[in-house]
Amino acid sequence: MASFQLDDQILVQDTLFARTLTLNRPRQLNTLSLEMISRLSELFQAYEDDTNAKLIILKGRGRAFCAGGDLATMHRHFLEGNLKYGEEVVQKILNLTYLIATYSKPQVSIMNGIAMGAGVCFSVHGRFRVATENSIFAMPENALGLFSDAGHFLSRLPGFFGEYLGLTGTRLDGAEMLACGLATHFVPSAKLSLLEKALISRAASATSSCDLAFISAIIDEYSLQQPALKEKSALHKMDVIDKCFSRPTVEDILSALEKEVTTTDANRAGDEWLASTIRSLKNASPMSLKICLRSIREGRVQAMDECLAREYRISCHVMRGQISKDFREGCRAILWDKDKKPKWKPSSLELITEHMVDHYFSRLDGDEELKLPQRCNLNVFANAKL
Question: I need a surface site. Which of 132, 138, 182, 189 has the fewest CB within 10 A?
């Protein structure tokens, strides 16, 4: 077993046939630094060529699995005039996402705690995704003036649940993650150590690195198959979500939700959910909402590599701030000054034209486009794990 230092940002535990990687920035909720992303990429590439590595386990130390990218550091680089830092981080995140989505070996992601933003991208494309009663999923980027760069998996969720999650930033618990397909298993946190020991000790018994049924059977031994959904779960509102979030524009979605408020059969719990949903949309960056909805809709008909190329273009345009500087304003208000009062520009959906949104989806100049590595497993694995 390899030794490690607790100040390492990625803790590595090697056994004969399993490799366990632990995200290790607990005070920062395991937000991803540039160094962490680079190290994860190196390790995943090395393990793919290692015939002894039959199983990869990915988890986080502390109360978070991973709360996404380190946006506070990114904002500090903006303030220092280093505008390319953020683009480099996004490029490495998307390349690692692509590597994991097309990975030929089974990955078990243990999402015990907060799983948000880029942290979800690294886990959701693994073959096995374990949620617990501590799991908290969200894609909160629109509230930061960014956008939910996850059209590649939000578009694959049931009905129009992906649009709902991406636009509102709603939080899900572990039971909800299992029910909608973001998680493949639900294991009580008290059983996680036993699960890990079983996976590591029995990985040697797998007939090959792709013995998915064998690994799934091990996790099933510790799983709670159908944890109960809470009474107020949004998954009980799927009829309303599909009715409203299937509309073609953000304005139409808001209008449909507001009409639901006036229906005679709305109960108090339904009124609270509707009010919260409408409030989330109205508090988010209008530009981010427009971008997010279009990105998810395009993700429904695009392959994985096309989705990631599109999301890189959008991210670069968002960070460059040629049309709107909402991302910098969101970081200032939420992460830096923490006054939680961002001043979005444009300030309303009605002030945003299609031409303005088109800019974020336009190709980058010359060699600036995202360059994904050549992979031989794309048709087999990408887009098939959800």
Answer: 189
